[in-house]
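Might you be able to review the protein record set out just below?
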Amino acid sequence: MNEFALIRRYFARDCATPSVLLGVGDDCAILKPAPDEVLLVSTDLLVAGRHFPLNTAPEDIGHKALAVNLSDLAAMGAQPRGVTLGLALPEADPDWLAGFAEGFHRLAAEFGVCLIGGDTVASPQLTLAVTVLGGAQPDRVLRRDAARPGDLIAVTGTLGDAGLGLRTVLSPDSVPAELPLADRDYLRGRLDRPTPRLAEGQVLAGFAHAAIDVSDGLAQDLGHILAASGVGAEIDLAALPLSAAARRWLALDPSVETLPLTAGDDYELLFTLAPEDRDRLDFPATVIGSIRAEPGLVVRNRAGQAVDLARGGFDHFAVGPD
């Protein structure tokens, strides 16, 4: 199968949206942004063995490749307008490609985003490059630099699931023996199939001050907001929202209690808002702390003591994953 047959078979799909005039099949896609929108662009690289375990199912890789980019749009309150896909493949395996395309296109259809172009090459290592384009009204774009002293800090969903799921793959001996198999499967699923919080981001664009998606760990990603806004924060470790599976793991092994602060791949939205706007949240979210004028991040445990975080989050140039 040559490159063009591969594209036609797995990735060329009819696409009809007001913003896409021409998609896959020409030298360039043609988009027509709405007259009252600004264009937002984000690119992510995913490398096998670095961003997802080597034994990850192709459907899950396809889902995650798109989901992590849609999450960036969600963090800025934008709506997706189109996506491009670059694939570097060790081989053109029809079964793998069919599974990958199914996972990718299923999520794209769920959020109404069209694949509008990309490229494929042969490579010794499986690598994906996804670029997503979004639209938003100029006065409704969420940024990292607008947190204010007195703001509440809140987060969607639950934290730490993906980090624990990664441990089930990379460090199976670290999993408590008493942890049910269903919990392990749930946590692995949260690693492989994150949910982009696009609807929540578009709601937050109406009143939240600052936002970011939790990709490299809550503590590290909150640090980006603090640095950009010139403020500090205090977080209550006991307030972090945890899934039932994560709670059972932490109850069996309290030594990993800070993992929900430092593990990446959650792709939940972390945001700040004025206390008086808390009632405007019409989706599940948990307040975990507050913004203060003094610089730095303070994390307190149940006893009110400051917690020392040995590692703040994921670093692509650190020596291997946890």
Q: What stands out?
A: Residues 58-75 form the longest helix (18 residues).
